[in-house]
């Protein structure tokens, strides 16, 4: 049996930095201490446990709050791990997001780069998310007050997973990140389910009727709700009818049957119950049809700014061929298509490519073409030979960054310019380091897409030497 690690009390710890995982950072006897929910400038007492070369800790008392500490808006802050920086003034959040980009380029990339442009803040720091997912559970996370109370509480919950716990859900009363109609819908569904004794999913026992809710909101006023059941029966029909009658704001009411052990539904068919099968989003004069499984930037207003900057960085000329790697439903490809001779979009999800083609027709863009498949297998010399050599490559990969074979192919093609958009500056820095022998970093522009979190989007322009 392993020996339990001893907790120590560290008093008057000064928080001097904020880490990429959204935690405060202090030092004790030349050892780093990670302090969740601390703000740089705080003086705190913590309870800490040694973890090899660092301490992980919990705040016992804030002796002296940082001037940049603010009152969190959310009643769930401190238990819900979604907004780790809600207690930090937004200006300071932006500072540490920009610092994250610079640090990763210096420490991981180790390549020369110009002064980073000031990070572009989000107009809305609340209600900015256009997509959210909630989980039903029979194992609701109990607060400290509930644990010591002699009163019995209902353990059913509908909310977010507790960090590191696959079976524990923090019951959410109000989330500030999406429009409030989403809170009203979620709370009404939970209330109906409890009143009608519908079983919630038990991840340990692998049983239960209600599993998940997925909501998508559009700036055009559309609202999609997907209810995920373990199986479809009369109770499911009654619940969906209740939702349909109670919330006329829902323009697309859908459901999924998931009898698997995990919560992933992207590989499962989506069934139509009422309204449309999609929602519509607009970006300037463009219109995008978004189907249930389609990816779309989570902050719609900032997405427009992100793509506008991408187009400015790209400086596309009318005779140029553009390749858009990881194109999704074609948002970037269609956003820049008017400036180019031709745009080729490549994406590994077949359904996304079909949506991209559909969106090209909707927007009457006849100079675009889209290809589906593994990026490393599709983005080859054969494609270049048939579609033409690009003068510009725009790449917007997932958090893991680009596959080495994709980086190699870019080096072989040698486009004049590369615009690299990333939601993970660490993997972006790693990838740029692999092509820096042939390219110079010309511009760097962070964009805040996710206020109150540690995440940051970053655009980098690379020009062939």
Can you put this structure into words, describing what you see?
The chain has helices spanning 90-109, 144-148, 180-195, 234-246, 300-314, 331-336, 350-362, 375-378, 381-387, 404-413, 425-435; strands spanning 7-14, 17-18, 23-28, 31-36, 43-51, 54-64, 131-137, 157-161, 169-171, 210-217, 223-229, 252-257, 271-275, 279-283, 286-290, 321-325, 342-347, 368-372, 392-395, 417-422, 439-447, 457-464. It has 465 residues and is an alpha/beta fold. The chain has three domains: 7-69, Beta Barrel (OB fold (Dihydrolipoamide Acetyltransferase, E2P)), CATH 2.40.50; 94-124 and 297-464, 3-Layer(aba) Sandwich (Rossmann fold), CATH 3.40.50; 131-283, Beta Barrel (OB fold (Dihydrolipoamide Acetyltransferase, E2P)). A seven-stranded mixed β-sheet has the order 9-8-7-10-11-12-13, with helices on one face. Strands 18-17-16-19-20-22-21 form a seven-stranded mixed β-sheet, with helices on both faces. The chain has a six-stranded mixed β-sheet with strand order 1-5-6-4-3-2, with no helix packed on it. Helix 1 (90-109) packs parallel to helix 11 (425-435). It starts with 6 loop residues before the first strand and ends with a strand.
């Amino acid at each position: 049996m392993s020996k339990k690690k001893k907790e120590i009390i560290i008093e008057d710890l000064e928080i001097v930095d904020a880490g990429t995982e959204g935690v405060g950072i202090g030092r004790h006897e030349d050892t780093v201490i990670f302090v969740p929910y601390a703000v740089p400038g705080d003086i705190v007492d913590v309870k800490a446990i040694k973890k090899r070369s660092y301490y992980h800790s919990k705040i016992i008392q804030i002796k002296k709050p940082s001037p940049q500490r603010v009152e969190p808006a959310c009643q769930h802050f401190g238990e819900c791990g979604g907004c780790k920086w809600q207690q930090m003034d937004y200006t300071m959040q932006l500072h540490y997001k920009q610092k994250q980009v610079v640090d990763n380029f210096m420490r991981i990339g180790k390549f020369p780069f110009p002064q980073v442009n000031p990070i572009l803040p989000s107009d809305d720091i609340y209600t900015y998310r256009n997509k959210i997912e909630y989980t039903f559970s029979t194992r609701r996370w109990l607060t400290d007050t509930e644990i010591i109370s002699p009163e019995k509480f209902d353990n059913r919950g509908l909310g977010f997973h507790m960090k590191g716990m696959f079976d524990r859900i923090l019951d959410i009363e109000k989330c500030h990140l999406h429009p409030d109609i989403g809170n009203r819908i979620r709370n009404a569904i939970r209330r109906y389910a409890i009143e009608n004794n519908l079983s919630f999913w038990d991840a340990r026992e692998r049983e239960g009727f209600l599993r998940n809710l997925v909501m998508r909101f559009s700036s055009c006023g559309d609202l999609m709700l997907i209810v995920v059941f373990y199986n479809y029966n009369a109770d499911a029909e009654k619940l969906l009818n209740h939702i349909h009658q109670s919330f006329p704001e829902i323009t697309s009411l859908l459901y999924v049957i998931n009898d698997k052990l995990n919560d992933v539904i992207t590989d499962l068919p989506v069934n139509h119950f009422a309204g449309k099968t999609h929602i519509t989003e607009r970006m300037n004069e463009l219109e995008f049809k978004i189907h249930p499984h389609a990816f779309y930037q989570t902050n719609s207003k900032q997405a427009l700014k992100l793509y506008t900057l991408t187009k400015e960085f790209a400086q596309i000329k009318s005779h140029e061929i553009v390749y858009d790697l990881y194109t999704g439903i074609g948002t970037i490809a269609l956003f820049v298509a008017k400036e180019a001779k031709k745009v080729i979009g490549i994406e590994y999800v077949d359904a996304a490519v079909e949506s991209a083609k559909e969106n090209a027709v909707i927007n009457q863009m006849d100079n675009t073409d889209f290809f589906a498949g593994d990026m490393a297998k599709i983005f080859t010399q054969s494609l270049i030979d048939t579609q033409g050599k690009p003068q510009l490559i725009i790449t917007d990969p997932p958090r893991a960054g680009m596959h080495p074979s994709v980086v190699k192919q870019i080096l072989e093609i040698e486009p004049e310019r590369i615009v690299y958009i990333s939601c993970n500056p660490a993997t972006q820095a790693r990838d740029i380091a692999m092509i820096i022998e042939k390219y110079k970093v010309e511009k760097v522009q962070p964009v805040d897409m996710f206020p109150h979190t540690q995440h940051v989007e970053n655009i980098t322009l690379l020009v062939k030497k």
